[in-house]
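Provenance

Sequences were taken from public entries as deposited. Structures were produced by running a predictor on each sequence independently, with no templates supplied. The record for PH (Pleckstrin Homology) domain-containing protein from Curtobacterium citreum is shown for reference.
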Amino acid sequence: MGDMTVPATPHLRASVYDVVLRPRRSLVRSTALSIVFSAVPLAVALVWVSFPFRTWAMVATVVVALAVLVGIVFVRLSTAYIGIDPDGLTIRGVVTAHRRIPRDRVHSLVLATTYGSSVDRTMRELVAFDATGAHLFRIRADVWGDDGLAQVVDALGVKLTEEARPVSTRVFAKRYPSSRAWYEQRPAYLLVGGVAALVVVGLLVVEFTGLLGR
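Predicted structure for PH (Pleckstrin Homology) domain-containing protein:
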């Protein structure tokens, strides 16, 4: 998990930051390979098998929309970074907004090991809070690596509380509810489920209409 790329690229203005972190190389590489060898063949196959039916135009539209979305995410992953300088912390995340946090606002850090459906698959998470207990940011080792989290802790040099035992992601979310990202909120799940349902219903309606017109 400590697979990190530390050197900065020129567009990050390396002279400004004392510490610059990048997403793990293995994460970027595996994402690219998944797109090339899994997503692309699947998209081509879906469009190909839909050609004999009237649904091919809708299927092609959905495939193009998903391709654009995947491309945006990959570009965001390739350009994501964390930069720390004497004045603050800059975070350009993958699916979160670009943020600049003044260094004097970071009051304390919590480092925890979490797990999802299986206790064998754990992950380290680092959460920052201000003096009032308000959440500032959260970074995860699956993106930035264990070494990356350690570098952030060392660079900020504030009070660190480390959870003694691994906790489930559900317990962690209840313990620090404000740390959940927008895509982990219930409205995001409902939105994704609603869009998926609309796509499926639309395909079924078009297909049913085509059968009736034969």
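The longest strand covers residues 108-115.
The chain is about 45% helix and 20% strand.
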